[in-house]
């Protein structure tokens, strides 16, 4: 192979992809292909430094990963574990080891904690560094955050110069619920499971948040200069130093012992106060580790038995379609109650008609139900021969179950939609969405009350909420609401008029315009009027929005009844201005400024993008007359010319950095 040529090729391909990724938002390689090129280039550059290009993209690659924390190379790589999914995999594991060694060996069986692994380094009895696993070779320095975890000792009696322990940082099921509850009250996106919550918390920049969240850490590995005979002895020692070592772990003499222990763990798993997703089996005799050996990713002396997702069988009593606010039909399973993972399941999702037909799921059939973590239970499929039992085949709805309009399927999609703008099902869902916590957050308007108001003809459209005060007496008689409750309700409706406008925009329920997007759009356009007046080109140019969002806004605005609805909301005094703007704009240097980046800069493109975002600037992909600045590195081309032609201010890297610094100092 011509090494010099290959290095050049790799540099070019990586550069092209970087440009497509960072400038055009359109990479031509997926992440794993990109990683392969980078690692090939890195390997060649190390082996043949004489051919290394001084401007090699490798100089930047490291920075493309999380820049938030500094990088630390692990002294010993942090390996992962091979997985076993059944008894056969475990038997193989055992047989392989028996082939390698004639020595007697036994095992140590531990719960597999569902969290994130951490390496803790102590020197002379002091915790000096804490590093995440990262890619196994290099992790992120999260020492500050680890200091906030009470159960991790900061000082230990072992005064070795170097002592490293590894373990799993986790959140208890209860603390996880508490965090999500708080997030719910603050109308933030919830964590999907305790592992994500633990990982999200540990990778927070603000260690005060970490302190509040009650993370813990089970320790399961020792790297130090003491020579223990067994892994279990090393854990006993760590326990004596004050580390949390899981007391459910125990020795197993043979494969039968291992099976029994796995069985016990799977039975008690739901009662534990933390999540476990399997059981880790390790050879206990440390002197065998080198002999049994390693692959590049995992040790061969340990294996993780993964619990299967919890599956139960029950009878499918009925299939019920529901209509969402966009008109999409979701089919739901009504089930004979069954307990999975400690909760009684009475319904599960069947997604869409395609899902049901492709799995030949039929009413009255026995079906398998799966529940994994906090995810909505799902029907996996039938377990009987439906033909044999002559159960009627499922037929998809052709008409909306609420308004009877014909259901439609958009090109290239599988979901069915009711496209009747006046469908009552959609309307009720839209009303519910408008008042929901994530949108206008009007307390007291439960689904039940909305239905009652609807039945009494008091609401049809969202602006009707703001006329309810005219019907105070009528509402008091509804569902024994009473004077006080109605006053509270009317007051909450009145107060919602002054919500910051991104809540109203989200409440309008425009397709593809979610909560975060609403916020981004209004931080750019300042008020909803400006946003609705923006051209398609202006919208599509904003890098976070993309064509789908832009099309959706433009088509929503092209429907007369939508604009009438918006006007009526304005007539009733709803705020359409982004109130966060005022706080953000106190110190405008780059806040709300539209910025384009071009040329080679001294740090990865992502560094500057993050800096702009953190300072509330808006990154655009191309220069127009509305661009405020061009941040311009070396060897800039077209964009620089265009900026000059359009009189857009050009900032070199240093000018730009001093602008941002000034702003940060002022804050
Ligand atoms: S031992 C070389 N023990 O599971 C030893 N890992 O799927 C490597 N984990 O990366 C780890 N509980 O984050 C070990 N008792 C336990 C564990 C455990 C959870 C995690 C760990 C590892 C992952 C592999």
Distance between the termini: 55 Å
Count of separate DSSP helical elements: 26
Would you tell me which CATH topology of the largest domain applies? D-amino Acid Aminotransferase, Chain A, domain 1
Low-confidence stretches: 61-67, 581-587, 662-667
For CATH, the homologous superfamily of the largest domain is named as DNA ligase/mRNA capping enzyme
Number of strands: 22
Tally of individual domains: 6
Report the helical percentage.
25-40%
Keywords, please?
alpha+beta; Helix Hairpins; 22 strands; disordered C terminus; binds 2-(butylsulfanyl)adenosine; 5-stranded mixed sheet; 19% strand; D-amino Acid Aminotransferase, Chain A, domain 1; 667 residues; 5-stranded antiparallel sheet; single chain
Written account of the structure:
With 667 residues, the protein is α+β, with helices and mostly antiparallel strands. The protein is built from 26 helices and 22 strands. The strands form 6 sheets. Strands 2-11-10-3-9 form a 5-stranded mixed β-sheet. A 5-stranded antiparallel β-sheet has the order 14-13-12-15-16. Helix 17 (501-507) crosses helix 18 (515-525). The longest helix has 20 residues, at 3-22. The model is unreliable at 61-67, 581-587 and 662-667 (pLDDT under 50). 2-(butylsulfanyl)adenosine binds next to strand 3, strand 8 and strand 11.
């Amino acid at each position: 192979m011509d090494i010099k040529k290959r290095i050049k090729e790799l540099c070019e391909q990586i550069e092209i992809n970087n440009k497509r990724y960072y400038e055009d938002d359109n990479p031509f390689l997926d992440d794993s292909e990109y990683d392969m090129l980078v690692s090939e280039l890195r390997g060649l550059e190390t082996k043949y430094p004489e051919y290394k290009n001084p401007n090699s993209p490798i100089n930047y690659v490291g920075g493309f990963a999380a820049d938030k924390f500094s990088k630390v190379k692990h002294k010993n790589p942090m390996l992962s574990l091979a997985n076993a999914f059944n008894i056969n995999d475990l038997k193989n594991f055992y047989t392989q080891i028996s082939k390698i060694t004639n020595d007697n060996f036994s095992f140590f069986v531990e719960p597999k904690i569902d969290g994130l692994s951490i390496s803790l380094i102590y020197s002379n009895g002091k915790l000096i560094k804490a590093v995440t696993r990262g890619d196994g070779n290099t992790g992120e320095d999260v020492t500050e955050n680890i200091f906030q975890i009470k159960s991790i000792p900061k000082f230990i009696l072992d005064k070795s110069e170097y002592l490293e322990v590894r373990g799993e940082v986790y959140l208890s099921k209860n603390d996880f619920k508490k965090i999500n509850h708080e997030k719910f009250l603050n109308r933030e996106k919830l964590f999907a499971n305790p592992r994500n919550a633990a990982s999200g918390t540990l990778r927070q920049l603000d260690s005060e948040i970490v302190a509040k969240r009650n993370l813990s850490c089970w320790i399961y590995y020792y790297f130090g200069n003491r020579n223990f005979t067994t892994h279990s002895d090393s854990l006993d020692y760590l326990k004596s130093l004050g580390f949390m070592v899981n007391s459910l772990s125990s020795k197993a003499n043979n494969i039968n012992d291992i099976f029994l222990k796995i069985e016990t763990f799977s039975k008690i798993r739901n009662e534990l106060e933390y999540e476990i997703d399997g059981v880790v089996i390790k050879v206990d005799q440390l002197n065998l580790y080198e002999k049994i050996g390693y692959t590049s990713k995992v040790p061969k002396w340990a294996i993780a038995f993964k619990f299967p997702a919890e599956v139960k069988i029950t009878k499918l009593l009925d299939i019920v379609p529901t209509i969402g606010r966009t008109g999409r039909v979701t089919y739901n399973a009504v089930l004979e109650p069954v307990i999975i993972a400690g909760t009684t399941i009475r319904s599960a999702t069947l997604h869409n008609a395609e899902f049901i037909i492709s799995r030949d799921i039929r009413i009255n059939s026995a079906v398998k139900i799966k529940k994994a973590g906090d995810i909505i239970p799902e029907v996996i499929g039938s377990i009987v021969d439906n033909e044999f039992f002559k159960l009627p085949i499922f037929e998809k709805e052709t008409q909306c179950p609420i308004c009877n309009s014909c259901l439609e399927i958009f090109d290239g999609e599988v979901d069915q939609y009711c496209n009747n703008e006046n469908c009552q099902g959609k309307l009720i869902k839209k009303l519910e969405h408008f008042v929901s916590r994530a949108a206008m957050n009007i307390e007291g308007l439960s689904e039940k009350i909305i239905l009652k108001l609807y039945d009494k003809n008091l609401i049809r459209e969202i602006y009707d909420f703001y006329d309810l005060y005219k019907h105070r007496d009528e509402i008091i008689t509804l569902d024994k609401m009473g004077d006080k409750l109605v006053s509270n309700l009317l007051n909450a409706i009145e107060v919602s008029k002054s919500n910051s406008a991104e809540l109203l925009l989200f409440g309008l329920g425009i397709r593809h315009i979610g909560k975060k997007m609403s916020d981004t759009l209004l931080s750019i356009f300042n008020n909803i009027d400006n946003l609705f007046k923006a051209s398609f080109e202006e919208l599509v140019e904003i890098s976070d929005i993309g064509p789908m969002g832009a099309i959706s806004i433009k088509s929503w605005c092209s429907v007369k009844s939508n604009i009438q609805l918006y006007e009526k909301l304005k007539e009733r005094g709803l705020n359409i201005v982004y109130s966060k703007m005022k706080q953000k704009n106190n110190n405008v240097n780059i806040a709300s400024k539209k910025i384009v980046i071009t040329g080679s800069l001294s740090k990865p493109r992502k560094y500057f993008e993050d800096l702009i975002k953190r300072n509330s600037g808006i990154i655009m992909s191309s220069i127009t007359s509305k661009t405020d600045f061009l941040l311009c590195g070396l060897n800039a081309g077209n964009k620089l010319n265009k900026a000059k032609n359009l009189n857009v201010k050009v900032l070199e890297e240093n000018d730009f950095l001093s602008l941002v610094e000034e702003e940060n100092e002022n804050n």
